[in-house]
Structures are given as C-alpha cells and as structure tokens.
C-alpha cells in the first residue's frame, strides 16, 4: 500500500497597517503615488536621520494582538535585521526579534463542521521595503521607495494547519479580524496582506516534523492553495525517490504553477540581529491595554448572532454581508434609515456583488452613501420606479454615489401613472402587432409577453410591467 | 590573543558584508576581529548573574509621533542620491523578481 502523507503548514502573514503615515517618519502611506514622492531622509536610510515611532502603529498592533488572544509584551523594543538588497535603503530592516509586541495567541477556524484552534507563535511590528519593478527594456530593476517604511505587522503561526482549506480559513479569519479592527484593508492583490507558507510533509502517524521549505510571492488565495498542493507533491516525490528535502526559501511562480529555490547557500540567512539603538523601548501599561480593549469593535461572530436576533434575514445573507466590515456597516446604516433589512440585503448580495465583480473591486471599495440606497428602496417600494429602472439607477449610485431621487427626476424615469397615456401606447402596440394579438387570442399566452415588451420599449421603461400586463389583458379580452 | 578566527569565518563575514577582500586585507581583518573579541571577553570577567539585560542606554521610553502627514513630495531630494535613474526610480542592476 502506498504511504500516506500529512502536510504540516505554518504561516507568516504580513499585514500593512492602515496608518496615514509611515512607521518612523511623516511620509504618506497612500497607495499609488508617483515613484519616490512619499520619501524622506528617514525612509531612504540617509546617514544621520532618526526614526520616531508612529503611536498608531503600536495601537493597531496591540489591537490585533488582543483580538487574536495574544499576550501583549508590555516592555517591547525594536531590533535591526541586516541584509543587503536594493529594496532596503538602510541595509537593515527595523523589526522585532527578541521582544515582539504580542505572543502566544490563537484564532479559531471552522472547516466544514470542524472547529480548530490555530496557535499564533508571535506577532511583531516592522517596516516594509521598497518596490522593485523589472525593466524589460534595459534589463535592469527600478526601485520605488514609496513603500519603504510603511508599517507592517508580521503574524507568525505555529505549524498547526494540515490542509489548504485550513490555511484559507485561517487567512480569512485573520482578514476579518483585522478589517473589523480597521487596522488594515487586507488586500492580497495590492499586497497589503501577504503570506509566506512554511510547509513540510511527514508520514501519517510520525511524531517528528519533516524538513520544511518556505514559499514566498503568494499574492492571491488561489495562488496560495495551488502553491500548497504543488509543494506538498514536490516534497512527497523527493521522499519517495529516496532524496532529502532541503530547507530553503522557494519562490512560487503562479503562471508556471511551480516554485524554484530562491536563496543559495552563498546568501545564507544570517541577519545578525541586534537591538535598534535609535529607538527607545515601548512600555504598554495596563491602562493603555484597557483603553485599546475598550475600543475593540463588535467582531463577526458577535455580529452574526446579533443579526440573527435583530433582523429578519436568512443566516446565509448575514454570513455574506458580515464577510466584509464595510458591507456590514452599509447594511446596518441603510436598514436603520429604511427599516427593510431583507430589501437592503438583496441589493447588497445581488447587485452590489455583481458590480464589484464586474469592476474588479472588493467590498472595502464600496463608496456609495447608505442614504442613497435607502432612498432607492423607498422609491421602488412606493412604485415610483420599476425594478429594471431601479437596477439602472443603482448602478449610478454604485459608481457615482448619485442621489436617486434627483437622478430619477432629472432623467424622467418615473413610472407614468397617467392611465390615458398608457392606453394610447397600448392601442398603437395592438394595432402594430396584429400577428401577436391573433396568437394571444388563439391561446398562445407567450404572445402577450412580446406585446408587454413592445409597450415597455415604447414607454422607455417608465411603466410598471404588471400594470401593462393587466391593462393589455383587459383590452384584448 | 585568545580568540582565533578561521579562514572560513573571514570568508563568510565577507560574503555577508558583500565585501571582496584581498589576502592581505583578510589577514588584517582577522587580526582586528580577534582583538575585538578579546576586548569583549573582558566583560565576561564580570558576574552578571541576576542582572536584567539592558535594552537601551537611555532611561527613556515611549517616544512617539502622532499619525499626521508632515512630509510632502520628497522625490527631488531622494533622487539626488540615485547614481542612475529612470522614470523617477532608482535604476539598479537586475534583481531576481
């Protein structure tokens, strides 16, 4: 019988914090600025420049630590991690090795019906590096230091995961906690959340771990899942062929769906950490921890329970809506105005998700005002506009945050309530479509649909299809 | 000198520091480093049992900045330090990835 293998996975997750400024200087962290515009002597490592810690970084990091059941290190400090690479202008990264801000935590994940605790070994604060872009034309690399010094937390798990599904569940859990805290937008595509996967395999039942490799460059959930499957198989193949797994860092290429070793022995991972002399220790008092705790928001699990009690919407809807803090906020604000939770849920789950997908956006990108969605629901409920017009107006709200009342007024989209006008149009449609009329009278129910369609077209959509249908039947009876 | 540094260590430190050393320089670096280690050994003569490691020389903690943008576009000054540049970026020899 073939040997059975178990995959053992630990994760290092980097999260860019949502501060306005960098960790050690007053440069902006805004994404997408022209190259090197958000730089100064501190974040480009000029001699003589001195870093000063952004207080908000400590607040966010401690909040994440508390939300993931960690112990907060009440006297913590920074260390220098030395390495040479063009994305690192100081030739060292300011990080935390000896006294990281949080340790010994866990999050609970659910895979299927199974609940499981994934332990967090430690979490530390550090600065991000610059961005390297390969220049095909010159075959050189271009460096933009805008990201250099953007605050990160790195969350290091214990090797507690056994499958790609568990890894996804763990990442989703972290994403939700951190987004709910407002500590990061956690976008894998934009790199504000990145995961390195440490993976080894061992025979089922073995007590020792196998030799692990570390995989980098995983920038989507799909890439992570594929890389896990690929690396698991690569290691099993090596073991089956009687060869050893080498402890190394590998770079995943999602286009080729394979990885290659990244650092050779020459580039040994010897970072020669030492205490950062330019920054003083951080003392996090009991009072400060209490303040941060008091500010913790309602997390998803609690929110789901409350939705179940307070709103008459299916569990499925509540799960989708609370899967994004932004979505949940809009849901609650809109429902508070219009008092129709199910209608609000429908707009969010159907049209909003469809448009997000079409635009390649994430729920955190939603920028319309809850007031406008509430008004749209009221307009539809009052029969002022029909459902297809409502969809069209919603798209405008979604894209441009227009006021639906004004928009409907300006564009003349209101349903024509004037029965006389409708009758005129109907008479013309009936006269123009003798064949359809004959078919309907001959018992073909479908022919009526064609006539309703013609009428809606002639009315430029500003009629209520139900009313048109009813009136048509009357006139053809 | 009590401390001895091997050829391999000198080679390894050179690689880490991205330095190419001539044989002469290696010899000089080795004797410097051996003397440094000997000097540090003096500290071992002290009994540090029960003394908490010092994390910083100043008795100061919690020096913070508020999260407010104070710097504007620094690209002009920053790029003055670029020996080569292109499209407002530092141009460097090709790196992997």
Automatic annotation (TrEMBL), chain B:
**Alphabetical list of InterPro entries matching this protein:** Asp/Glu-ADT_sf_sub_c, GatC
* Catalysed reactions, semicolon-separated: L-glutamyl-tRNA(Gln) + L-glutamine + ATP + H2O = L-glutaminyl-tRNA(Gln) + L-glutamate + ADP + phosphate + H(+); L-aspartyl-tRNA(Asn) + L-glutamine + ATP + H2O = L-asparaginyl-tRNA(Asn) + L-glutamate + ADP + phosphate + 2 H(+)
SUPFAM superfamilies attached to this UniProt entry = Glu-tRNAGln amidotransferase C subunit
Q: Which residues form a coiled coil?
A: none
Do the record's keywords include rRNA-binding? no
Q: EC number(s) on record?
A: 6.3.5.-
Q: Does the entry feature the keyword Protein biosynthesis, yes or no?
A: yes
Q: Which Pfam families match?
A: GatC
Query: Which keywords are on file for this protein?
Result: ATP-binding, Ligase, Nucleotide-binding, Protein biosynthesis
| PANTHER family, per the entry | GLUTAMYL-TRNA(GLN) AMIDOTRANSFERASE SUBUNIT C, MITOCHONDRIAL
Function text:
Allows the formation of correctly charged Asn-tRNA(Asn) or Gln-tRNA(Gln) through the transamidation of misacylated Asp-tRNA(Asn) or Glu-tRNA(Gln) in organisms which lack either or both of asparaginyl-tRNA or glutaminyl-tRNA synthetases. The reaction takes place in the presence of glutamine and ATP through an activated phospho-Asp-tRNA(Asn) or phospho-Glu-tRNA(Gln).
- Which HAMAP family does the UniProt record give? GatC
Q: Name the family the entry cites.
A: Belongs to the GatC family.
- Listed NCBIfam families: gatC
The record describes its quaternary structure and partners as:
Heterotrimer of A, B and C subunits.
What is the recorded name of this protein?
Aspartyl/glutamyl-tRNA(Asn/Gln) amidotransferase subunit C
């Amino acid at each position: 019988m073939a040997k059975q293998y178990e995959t053992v996975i630990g994760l290092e997750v980097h999260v860019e914090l949502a501060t306005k400024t960098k960790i050690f200087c007053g440069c902006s962290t805004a994404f997408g600025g022209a190259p090197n515009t958000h730089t100064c002597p501190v974040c480009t490592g000029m001699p003589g420049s001195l870093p000063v810690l952004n207080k908000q970084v400590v607040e966010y990091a401690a909040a994440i630590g508390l939300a993931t059941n960690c112990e907060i290190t009440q006297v913590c400090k920074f260390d220098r991690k030395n390495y040479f690479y063009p994305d690192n202008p100081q030739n060292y990264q300011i990080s935390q090795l000896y006294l990281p801000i949080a340790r010994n935590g866990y999050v609970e994940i659910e895979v299927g019906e199974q609940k499981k605790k994934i332990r967090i070994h430690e979490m530390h604060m550090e600065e991000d590096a610059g961005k390297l872009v390969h220049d095909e034309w010159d075959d050189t690399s271009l460096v933009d230091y805008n990201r250099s010094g953007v605050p990160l937390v790195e969350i290091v798990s214990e090797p507690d995961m056994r499958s790609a599904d568990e890894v996804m569940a763990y990442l989703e859990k972290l994403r939700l906690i951190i987004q709910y805290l407002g500590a990061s937008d956690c976008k894998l595509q934009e790199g504000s959340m990145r995961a390195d996967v440490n993976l080894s395999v061992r025979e089922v039942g073995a007590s020792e771990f196998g030799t692990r490799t570390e995989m980098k460059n995983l920038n989507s959930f799909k890439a992570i899942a594929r890389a896990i499957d690929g690396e698991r198989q690569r290691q099993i193949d090596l073991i089956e062929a009687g060869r050893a797994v080498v402890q190394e860092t590998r770079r995943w290429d999602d286009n080729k769906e394979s990885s290659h070793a990244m650092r050779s022995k020459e580039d040994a991972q010897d970072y020669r950490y030492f205490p950062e002399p330019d920054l003083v220790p951080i003392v996090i008092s009991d009072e400060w921890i209490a303040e941060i705790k008091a500010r913790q928001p309602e997390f998803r699990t609690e929110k789901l329970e409350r939705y179940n009690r307070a709103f008459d919407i299916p569990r499925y809807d509540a799960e989708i809506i609370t899967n994004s803090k932004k979505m949940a906020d809009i849901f609650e604000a809109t429902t508070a105005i219009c008092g129709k939770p199910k209608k609000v849920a429908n707009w969010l789950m159907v049209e909003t998700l469809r448009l997000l997908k079409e635009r390649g956006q994430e729920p955190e990108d939603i920028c319309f005002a809850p007031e406008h969605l509430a008004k749209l629901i009221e307009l539809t409920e009052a029969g002022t506009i029909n459902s297809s017009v409502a969809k069209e107006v919603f798209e405008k709200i979604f894209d441009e945050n227009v006021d639906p009342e004004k928009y409907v007024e300006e564009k003349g989209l209101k349903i024509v309530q004037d029965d006389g006008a409708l009758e005129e149009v109907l008479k013309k449609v009936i006269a123009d479509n003798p064949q359809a009329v004959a078919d309907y009278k001959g018992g073909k129910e479908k022919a009526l649909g064609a006539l309703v369609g013609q009428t809606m077209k002639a009315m430029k959509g500003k009629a209520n299809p139900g009313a048109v249908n009813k009136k048509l039947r009357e006139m053809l009876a | 000198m009590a401390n001895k540094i091997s050829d391999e260590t000198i080679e390894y430190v050179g690689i880490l520091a991205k330095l190419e050393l001539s044989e002469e320089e290696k010899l000089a670096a080795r004797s410097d480093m051996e003397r440094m280690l000997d000097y540090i050994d003096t500290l071992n003569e002290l009994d540090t049992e029960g003394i908490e490691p010092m994390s910083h020389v100043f008795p100061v903690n919690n020096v913070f900045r508020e999260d407010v943008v104070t710097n504007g576009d620094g690209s002009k000054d920053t790029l003055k330090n670029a020996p080569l540049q292109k499209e407002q970026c530092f141009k460097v020899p090709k790196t992997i990835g």
